[in-house]
Amino acid sequence: MHKRFLRVATLFVCCLIVHPAFAAISSPAIRDSTGKDSARLLPGFIKKISFGGVFQARYTGSLVKEVDVNGVHQPNAEEVVRNSFSIKRARLQAKAQVSDRFTAAVLINLAEFSGDTKGKVLENAYVSYRWNDALNFTIGQFRPSFGLEDLYPVDIIQSMDFSNQYYAFGSNGWQSFQIGVSMFGAFNKDSKVPMKYALSVVNGNNRNQVSDNDNGKLGTARLELGDMNKLSLGLNGGFGAVKRQSVYAVGVDVSGVIPLAPKWDLQLQSEYKQGNNHQLYYALPDSLRKEPVSRYIMSGVYILPNFRYKINFHKLTSIEVSMRYEYFKEDQKHDGTVRQSYIPMVSLAFLKDYGGRIQLGMQIDQYNRDIPGTKTHNSNLLIAQVQCRF
């Protein structure tokens, strides 16, 4: 009995040893059925994703007793908030290079969660298609090119913020973030006078909206001649319809860099715009609309010289001193409010492309008449801001 058990056990062990080798020889190979990204096999497919952002924190102090840190006059407040720390911007951007022709981008501003988020937070959300240097398309939510300030982000401007005219024309649908489609490109890039153009059609009711609020659209066009790093001239024009009434906007801008010394240069920007203020028109009661929207015209001009000293000392790359002067009138024909702004600024720039920045400046607003309890009131704000780009 014992010998029979040993024979059976020996035979069982031999089968265990021989079976895997036999199976490896005789069994057919099993094909891997795991799903693969077939897009990787397509020529020209990149699928590269990059992330970036900017953080701006500031301290604001009001130098006028009855004006708060937001520039609002508070005549009856027991205690006016005249100094405060705040987060101006906390932006995050994701950009996907889907192929050698397609690009998608999303930009959000997390700082806008501190208040009413309607029509806020989401800034850029678009897809771009590049055919060649002369022909490109963008669809989604973006900033249509209608002036200098649409060509670069706010974190690299030579002032504390964009101009008053930028925000006014943005609220009227010509600038800032809008939903629509754009075609743009460049010609003669290597010639003495390079050319750029941009054509856009947008809803005109600002960003982050479910749909348009009427059947009218706004069309804009920009032609830029020259090099912004030397001397350039921009011509802007737009027309459209808002609630079945025609509206228009035009503008011209000049930008350039003047070398003063090996480490000194003067960056100069100036811009003039004029157009219908249909936001003001439709905000008026019907009894006060005595003329069509074509008679409600806003206009503004600013000049922004910026002296830059390229120091390149450790992480400090430059020291800059600027002074923006701006004149803006919200309604030329009906004795509208005139706002004059003076914004001096000193900034220390660190790393490349303002990767780090410390800014100290003032925002001095003067109106032709004060309206108690509103922002239409003379104010002096002292601003210290720290910025980090990544």
UniProtKB/TrEMBL annotation:
Signal peptide annotation: 1-23
InterPro entries assigned to the protein according to its UniProt record, in alphabetical order: Porin_dom_sf, Porin_O/P
Keyword Kinase (UniProt): no
Top-level taxon in the UniProt lineage: Bacteria
SUPFAM superfamilies linked: Porins (SSF56935)
Keyword field contains Nucleotidyltransferase: no
Keywords, ordered alphabetically: Signal
Annotated Pfam families: Porin_O_P
Record protein name field: Phosphate-selective porin O/P
Native source organism of the sequence: Chitinophaga polysaccharea
Organism lineage: Bacteria, Pseudomonadati, Bacteroidota, Chitinophagia, Chitinophagales
